[in-house]
Amino acid sequence: MGRKYTDNALTTLATNLGIGGTTLTVQAAKGDLYPPVVGHGAPGSAPDYFVITLQDASNNIEKMRVEQRAAGQDILGSAGFPLVRGFDGTTARAWVAGDLVDLRIDRTGISDVDDKAQGANKAFGIRGAATAGLNFGYYGGTILNDGVLTNIADGAVALTASNTNFVERTPAGVVSANIVAFSADKIPLYQVVADTTGISSFIDQRAEFKFAGRVAKSVAGAADVTLNRAEVGVAIIELTGVLTGNISVILPATKREWVVFNNTTGAFTIQLKVAGQTGIPIQQGGRKVVYGDGVDIRDATTSLTNPGNTSQALVDGANIAWDTSKGGAASVTLGGNRTVDAPTNLKAGGHYVLTVTQDGTGGRTLTWNAAFKGASGAAMTQPALAISAVTSFVFESDGTSLFLTGGGQYRLRHEPGWDRLRHARWQPHDERADEYEARHLHPARDPGRNRHAPSDLERGVQVAERSRADALYRHQQARCFRLRVRWHEPVCTGL
């Protein structure tokens, strides 16, 4: 495919050629000195051609582009694919029998050969020897597949006639073609237009897949959304729109990395996943670095030793599953009585928090798996049952089970700078407690401490630490206690 060449293609005109002639005839039995080309595509820009130079005794020359010559024939050009006269900046003129007809390697020919050589040096360059009719040949080469240098053999792929064919490859180097579009999970090679007999034109798309740019994608509604190739071909994906139900955003089963921003509204969840897989949640307003491992979508920001600082929204259902590798601080809103399954991927010494919220009905209870251990060996307690009540359970793990170390009921109220914890309880009145609160629970009161919004885990640990401090004070100084409600109006009265 492209410009054709043969060795020693030199003869003379058999008949005169006028200035407007569209075909020429060379000496008998000399036509096969020149390449055979089957005219197809658009006349004047057919993908297969060769260039001849005519020269007379006075050294006048004219280049002509030849787009059709049947094998065994001495006629160059045809009515359907006429000679392109005055090619490459020359001037059309009249010629007489006996003038030279030469297929030369000229400046543009050398440039064409160089381009082909450069293309062949790249893996998946066009292989002319294997490209004919509706077969598209390509060179193999060495590619990097999952960090391993992999040799790919030369090959060819069949095209569909009278269609635009999208030639692409997998990361492992398997080449295929379809007539729909480039696939989201493959790497583009060529966009090839084929007519009924062969290739009319093509566009080289072999720029290796590099992430750049950003796309905003509306996922409004309650239906799952599958991202297309253009949408997954950027570095940053922003999800927008008003959710009316829990949805999944489907990404391809490929090995890539993205930054995803959940900028949706509506009290529903988004799960990033590969079709048919589990995936990972992404909270509203949250940003995550995620990657595909060829099977599913993974969270690149999860700590390998203690994922407690990463939060996730669990999927509500008859059974609630908690993969702690995706977030050691988890939350779920109950829509009915539920069973909490044994958590997976626990880390010995890890701290975990489960925040349970009642829905607009309330009264939802939990059946805890035996992996959850209540305080001092007791059974796990139930969450608060009031409508919209929020209960936090704080755990430590030995790698197999979760041991309840603290928790309680609280309400969240947003204020500029951070979310503040409302927690009514018995509190010892002690200057050390005031100092602890100023430094650890209310950073704004301590200029020497960085201000940041505490995570769910930090809130839970704070609640647990203060609960243990209260128990110690009650045991040692029972007469020295009085009710104190931090930060907000009192919600408890009396001893």
Quaternary structure of the protein:
single chain
Number of strands: 38
Overall geometric form: rod-shaped
C-alpha-based Rg, rounded: 37 Å
Number of helices: 4
N-to-C CA distance:
93 Å
Keywords:
rod-shaped; mainly beta; Triple-stranded beta-helix; 4 domains; six-stranded mixed sheet; 495 residues; disordered C terminus
Would you summarize the structure shown here?
With 495 residues, the protein is mainly β. The radius of gyration is 37 Å and the shape is rod-shaped.
Task: Give your account of this protein's structure.
The protein has 495 residues and is mainly beta. It folds into four domains: 1-110; 122-204, Phage fibre proteins (Triple-stranded beta-helix, Sandwich); 210-301, no CATH class; 411-485, no CATH class. The chain is built from four helices and 38 strands. The strands form eleven sheets. Strands 1, 2, 4, 5, 7 and 8 form a six-stranded mixed sheet that branches. Strands 26-28-30-33-34-32 form a six-stranded mixed sheet.
Secondary-structure map:
Layout: E1 2-3, E2 10-12, E3 24-25, E4 48-55, E5 61-66, E6 75-76, E7 84-87, E8 100-102, H1 107-121, E9 135-138, E10 141-145, E11 148-152, E12 155-158, E13 163-169, E14 175-178, E15 187-194, E16 199-204, E17 214-218, E18 225-226, H2 229-232, E19 236-240, E20 247-251, E21 257-262, E22 270-274, E23 280-282, E24 287-292, E25 297-299, E26 311-313, E27 319-320, E28 329-334, E29 338-340, E30 351-358, E31 366-368, E32 372-373, E33 390-397, E34 402-409, E35 411-415, E36 418-422, E37 424-428, H3 431-441, H4 456-476, E38 481-485
Parallel strand pairs: 1-4, 17-19, 18-20, 19-21, 20-22, 26-28, 27-29, 28-30, 29-31, 32-34
Antiparallel strand pairs: 2-8, 3-6, 4-5, 4-8, 5-7, 9-12, 10-11, 13-14, 13-15, 15-16, 21-24, 22-23, 24-25, 30-33, 33-34, 35-36, 37-38
